[in-house]
Design goal:
Layout (H helix, E strand, L loop, with lengths): L1 H16 L1 H13 L4 H12 L4 E4 L6 H11 E2 L2 E5 L6 H5 E6 L4 E6 L6 E5 L6 H13 L1 E4 L2 E4 L5 E6 L12 H4 L4 E4 L5 H13 L9 E2 H11 L6 H15 L13 E3 L3 H17 L7 H12 L4 E2 L1 H5 L4 H11 L4
Parallel strand pairs: 1-9, 1-10, 2-11, 3-6, 6-9
Antiparallel strand pairs: 4-5, 7-8, 12-13
């Protein structure tokens, strides 16, 4: 009984804390037509202190989305356009010699912001990618002999283009794992497309004003961490991740030859955190299986290694995840 009272209290606190979610969604919808899933995914990564990788053809408002989000939150924003000649120092910063006082001074790079847009991350060489990924993981940057903490909240949104693979450097599987979510963005619907044309022809570019602060986000994160996850839900999350490693134990022997490696413990943690943030967005103080199912594709799609047989048969990680989710017993 005491647990249900706690949940009621938590629901009341969530109702109070999550009012800014509505304001953020409204603000995003003023600028971006459609793309509900993209907006929701950005909020999930923001509330769970995770980073997000967006994949989609050019022109689908990937850059516009994070720029709008950073304008709605009173926070620092920076954009790094990744190119083949980029150096790690261009991202994290470097030591600059000053002739005036004959000393080296630290010049911080664009990674020192609350929101960092890494545009076309697969266009830069591996050493630049790893410099950014290290900052994402450690939340700090070392320049020379000094280590500087990155601001909080710190969210990296990286974009990559699935077409035109010439002159790109594919992100290594082990490093893609650092991204909490990988979201694949599709084209808008016909009605949305007409609205986009109408708005752009009229030159209706709405200016957005901040509706919340970085402090509010940090307070909301503390509440998200209190969202209740039952033992049965934990079991469900562990079963989904284990089914990517040992599919034969879950009656999915046909998947064994299609997967080279499954999700790591980081996948389980990310799945639990994302499900919790999703429950918070839906104004709930506890996680239900539907929350896990809502985020499972975005959390897992970049964490499953496909074998040569799978690629030869045109089987995607999405199809494998769907089969697993349909087979694993729901609590």
């Amino acid at each position: 009984m005491s647990e249900s009272i706690d949940i009621r209290q938590l629901n009341a606190r969530i109702e109070q804390q999550s009012s800014f979610v509505t304001n953020l969604v409204t603000g995003m919808n003023q600028v971006i037509v459609g793309q509900k899933h993209l907006v929701e995914s950005l909020l999930i990564s923001l509330l769970s202190d995770g980073h997000i990788l967006l994949e989609g053809v050019p022109g689908l408002a990937k850059t516009l989305a994070i720029k709008t989000l950073s304008q709605l939150i009173d926070a620092d924003y920076s954009r790094i356009q990744f190119t083949p000649d980029l150096l790690p120092a261009d991202v994290v910063g470097t030591l600059v010699y000053s002739q005036k006082d004959e000393n080296f001074h630290v010049k911080k790079g664009p990674v020192f912001a609350n929101f960092v847009l890494a545009d076309e991350i697969n266009r830069a060489p591996a050493k630049v990618q790893s410099a950014l990924l290290e900052a994402m993981q450690e939340h700090q940057v070392t320049i020379g002999e000094q280590t500087f903490p990155l601001p909080t909240p710190f969210l990296v949104m990286a974009t990559q283009n699935p077409i035109e693979q010439e002159g790109t450097y594919q992100l290594p599987e082990a490093q893609v794992d650092r991204f909490m979510l990988k979201v694949v963005i599709g084209y808008p619907t016909l009605e949305e497309e007409k609205l986009i044309i109408r708005q752009n022809i009229k030159g209706e570019h709405k200016k957005v004003l901040p509706v919340t602060t970085a402090e509010e986000i940090l307070k909301a994160r503390a509440v998200v961490e209190e969202v209740y996850i039952d033992e049965k839900i934990e079991q469900y999350i562990a079963d989904i991740v284990f089914a990517t490693r040992y599919p034969e134990k879950y009656g999915l022997a046909e998947l064994k030859d299609l997967i080279t490696f499954g999700g790591s413990p980081r996948a389980s943690i990310s799945l639990a955190k994302a499900a919790r943030a999703y429950a918070f967005i839906k104004r709930r103080g506890y996680v239900v299986p539907e929350d896990v199912r809502a985020v499972v594709h975005d959390v897992m799609r970049h964490r499953i290694g496909l074998s040569y047989e799978a690629e030869a048969s045109n089987i995607t990680s999405e199809e494998i995840i769907s089969k697993i989710v349909n087979k694993v017993e729901v609590p």
